[in-house]
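Good morning,

Both structures are done.
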Amino acid sequence: MIPLLDLQAQYEGIEDEVMAAIGGVVASKHFIMGPDIPAFESALAQYVGVSHALGVSSGTDALLLALMALGIGAGDEVITSPFSFFATAGAIVRVGATPVFVDIDDTYTINPALIEARITPRTKAIMPVHLFGQMANMDPIMAIAKRHGLAVIEDAAQAIGSRYQSQDGRVYAAGSMGDVGCFSFFPSKNLGGIGDGGAVTTQREDVAGLMAILRVHGAQERYYHTMVGGNFRLDSIQAAVLRVKLKGLEAQHEARIQNATWYNQQLAHTGVGLPVVRGGGGRMIYNQYTIQVTDRQAVMDTLSAQGIGHAIYYPVPLHRQACFDGLGYQAGDCPVAESSAGRVLSIPIYAELTTDQLSEVVLGITSAMKVSVQGVK
């Protein structure tokens, strides 16, 4: 068996330290907003390269909190990608705004060339999604936002540690370019907790202050509420675990990149559509390794028969979800996202994979496609 993600293998080298961290929280009895929270937030802000980081209850709530803090609500529009996890659009709708879907390019991230045509007087923000561990093409997105006075919310749920080479010569980390960056620490992420968790990051003092108030029901002082917020706190136990795991995050990234390089070499010239990585000095951290295959069902059947994990991210683009029928989108409105949804397949990429396991995955794919791969037995 080769699972899509092997948390057992991931925790083998750090389990004692993780359990000690959990035990420390239990011993302290500081379960809510204990000292592990600011300690983790400080380490995360330094890692991302921002002034402020706030731990929150999930990646979904990170998006919701960012939208609330930026004053986006009823009657507003937010431009975003149709090729993402549901929370991207769901959070927009939950604050009363309308998602406006703009098609993706071959990196699975929003196509900046299509954004400006969708801006209306109701548009208040752009929410690019850094998908599968790669940042969206942020320079043109930031330029469009500046021209039109729009906020930028980075959905970086799958991209902590990914980087973008800007035209200004700087390399930016995910979550450091827009007004707010939003992260998820769901266990499957490169930096995953032991349950739900997330974070928001920002360089803006005003927005950080608002988010800090909103995440505790809009109260600066307990029981005195200046606005309506929510219960968006990160648990202390999650922060303690994430502090341990953050120390090894770069090693996780590098191992995933090495595995992806191996896949790229072995799957070249086989007819498999490989991940497209934007050039320059950026970095993709491979939260998923996503290929495209023509006969996806045949490949999945073969992988299932051989006990090899796989998943489809995402089978139905957001603009074609039944709950958004009222927005009026039709088949063909986002052709790249729609085509990708019918062909994408994610395969194991986690850091602990052995060469034998990687070879077994490749053989499963290529045998289903009836092609041979030199050097893999």
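Second structure follows.
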Amino acid sequence: MREAALRGAAVPRPPARDARLDTLRGVLQLVIFASHSYGSFVGAWLIPAAWGFSDSSEQFLFLSGLALGSVFSRKRARDGFRVALLDLGLRIVRLWRTHLVVFSGFALMVLGVSLLLGMPGEVQRMGFGHLLSDPLRGFAGAAVLLYQPNFHEILPVFIWCMLLLPGFVLLLARFGAVALVVPVALWAAVQVRGWDLPSLGGTAIGFNPLAWQILFMTGAWLGRRTLFGAGPLPGGRWLTAGALVVVAGGLWFRLLDHGFLAGGAPDLGGWIAKDSLGGLRLLHAAATAWLAVRLLPAAAAAIWKRPLSRALGRVGRHSLAVFCVGLFLSYAAATLFRSTGHSWNPMHPFLLDALLVGGGSLLLAGFAHRLDRSPVAAHPTPAARSAA
């Protein structure tokens, strides 16, 4: 469709902000914080990855694609491709800048822990040795998103996916759902041929963007589809039944893996690999997302008006800022767990979990509340309102 014809067509209204999605993002954000607090009981046992093949990262990337696909498609319909591209470019620059700021601050924090707590191997263990030995090349590697120390693998995959979004939206406008062949083919190439991006500084690419983009692009397709008034996906009952089977299979595997059921868990290897988004992991993530949609009907909207849901919604609305602060808090928690020799037995009845993971979650919720009451949040600009 030509740009002139697109601008002349009726511009779809922006979808109303769904409080349920904000609440879900808030839950996912706190789960990510807990999972990064290595050594905690919550981070080991009370997160989705402990009872299935996938975790919160898949859902977060999918929801981001859902939102940005809708925003970009509407701006393209209203203002043309160039304006939509400029708006997305500014978002990418802001996220890239945030990535570098967090990377730099985190490196200083790791160096401080190494020096102040007498942990000489901490810098190497966290993957910042390359930066310390060659600061210029280390920072340049982070700038091109290919140097990824621990805790710094997730923001680059968001940036890569945002860079791929405009081309994919053009394919959707031209070919409709057939355009999904492209992200599927890229994901398949990772699984079959082992495609990956080169890594720098002795680190590995934590989330291979050639594979993980399939979640973002699927979300973008659904967001655009909903924006232009398409009906629900066909075969809802069969999809729900299949999703239940997949989720049950993931639970069965984890019960075997944890020793709660007799017999050893099968070796699924690459099928559930996180870096390459293995097939069963992808299927489980899709099944979980589908069940969440089916189990959170609009009729239950009153639930999302309760105080806890509102607090989680605030965390979800400010998920990027909360995520960044959560990285520092979770590393601090993980360091305290490790330095105190915390282990799970009757002598340690979850006290540190309550203090560190529980207290950290409350701090993040308070931080989101403070952001929500800021003048910018209370009186958003027109651009911010349209993005929301």
